[in-house]
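can u pls check wat happens w/ zinc ion
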Amino acid sequence: MSGWIDISQRLVKGIPIWPGDTPFSYQLSWSKEESGSVNVGQITLSTHTGTHIDAPFHFDEEGKRVIDLDLDLYIGRVRVLHLPDPIQIGIEELQSKNLKGVTRLLIRTDTWIDRSAFPHAIPPVAPELAPYLQEKGIRLLGLDLPSVDPLDSKELPAHHALTDHGIHILEGAVLDGVDPGDYQLAALPLPLAEADGSPVRAALKRLE
Ligand SMILES: Nc1ccccc1C(=O)C[C@H](N)C(=O)O
Ligand SMILES: [Zn+2]
Ligand SMILES: [Zn+2]
């Protein structure tokens, strides 16, 4: 056992996607039988498939693209909090938690229970939380949810507030059964030069 816990959704046919977005597919362009030497695959997917990060360009024309994001955001020490079934994720919900010295924060809500389907409703992040987290020194916020805003939001107030306060976003982590505490995080995006988001392979390793 390596000690790494995979907190990524598996990229399989039928993985739930944002309503109307591009379905995930993997297929062989050439089979070994056809080519005589190798299997070669191709993938089609939305940049917001499964466990993924948002680049600010997702919701801001002038925002950073994936390639511009600091790798340090996605590798290093992270704190996992358990906030079971919150109405929203706001200052009140986090007030009793000690966030001293935390730069990366993952919140387990356990609200996306049926992972075979896209959820109908999710607890949103309160935009007021952004300055609060910035003050604590947090630069990455990750959730076990497909968005930080209500699913029908067009203004995306939490996405904008977080970005305006220097906080980057990781969505769709699988935190079922992950105990609260401190871990090592690895969740690097792909080196997509122009993209608005990227799937990540996200993993945690417990720190003693
Ligand atoms: N894929 C989409 C298609 C259409 C409209 C929104 C989305 C999103 O991805 C929004 C969500 N806040 C996200 O960052 O994952
Ligand atoms: Zn996204
Ligand atoms: Zn998002």
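The chain is about 10% helix and 25% strand.
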